[in-house]
Amino acid sequence: MLRIVDVDGTYDSKMEPKLPAEVLKTAYRHLVLVRTLDTRMLSLQRQGRIGFYVPSTGEEACQIGSAMALEKRDWVFPAYREPGAAIWRGFPLETLIAQAYGNAQDPQYGRQMPNHFGSASIRYVTTSSPVGTQITQAVGTAWAAKIRKEDSVSLTYFGDGATSEGDFHAGMNFAGVFKAPTIFFCKNNQWAISVPVAKQTASKTLAEKARAYGMDGVRLDGNDLLAVYAATKAAVDKARAGGGPTMIEGVTYRMGPHSSSDDPTRYRPKEEVEAWARRDPIDRMRKYLELKGLWSKDRDDALRAELDDLVQNTIKEVERNPPPPIETLFGDVFADMSPQVKEQMEAYLASGERRRPEVLDKFPL
Length: 365
Ligand SMILES: Cc1ncc(C[n+]2csc(CCOP(=O)(O)OP(=O)(O)O)c2C)c(N)n1
Ligand SMILES: [Mg+2]
Fold this sequence. Notes:
Distance between the termini: 43 Å
Number of domains: 2
Shape: globular
Bound molecules: thiamine diphosphate, magnesium ion
Radius of gyration: 21 Å
């Protein structure tokens, strides 16, 4: 298993990617931002302000380290647990939060489940809810880029559970045969809802499945941002140069529930969770930066306070938005509204029935 930075922050200087200090600090900032956002979003769901949330606490290094290795022209086909990759690529925090509210500031006008955002402008395809469907889409897009002689690559994120889906095998095979420039980033967070990875496969590792499809498979410590970055960068460079796809298995842990609808205390021991808490990706990066003389406790306290404020204030602003105008329910079905849809809209508006604006003042921030 590839590891560059250990749990205590010590590192292998021969393997350490040569990233400028500013980039390392920006990466750390993003790790903390994603964690801060995640914690707030889950409590917004618990308070009844948003309907649903999929947390990604514990998996931040997999998200940020891999996104750092991509260029703007590359495509991302995510699952539902990679908000950090979207934020790294420039997806606005307020849009991400508004999407969970499904209010007038949400470009999707509440038509998608929370967490299912996306944007063509950052080449971040809207989240696939069905497990694994994004994998074949990523391969198709990568193959198209190859045919068009564009030098973009596609990176798709999926979980350990998704490796049991037909789409995973079809996508891997196709990419292997056609050398489609795809990075298969499997976030092995040990669980697929309540199914442990040991029950998911008879293979020793997930990465070894790559060999059967004629591509390299890399297994790495997914809580080590530098290992994630270095391996993804190598895979991206190889794919861009025509060397074909790579599968990466990031070994990490889903610290929280599968989603806001899940109670993991019913199926996994707390000792397991505690053991993984000691391998926290953010603590590790902080210790690494401290060892390199780039970080201090004061700076850390200041950063956390700043990001807490940023997230809280953004939520407050987003909450000021009303629900989407009711007319949006009828739009975007056809390029030009058909007479039937128009008639329905007019009848609805004439009925005087409007969605009540929700008052979210029960739990002041
Ligand atoms: C095709 C399909 N089957 C089942 C589900 C229900 N489901 C949603 S997430 C999930 C588990 C996926 O686990 P994994 O791939 O390990 O990703 P993780 O949630 O751990 O990030 C399941 C079974 C679904 N959404 N789609
Ligand atoms: Mg999983």
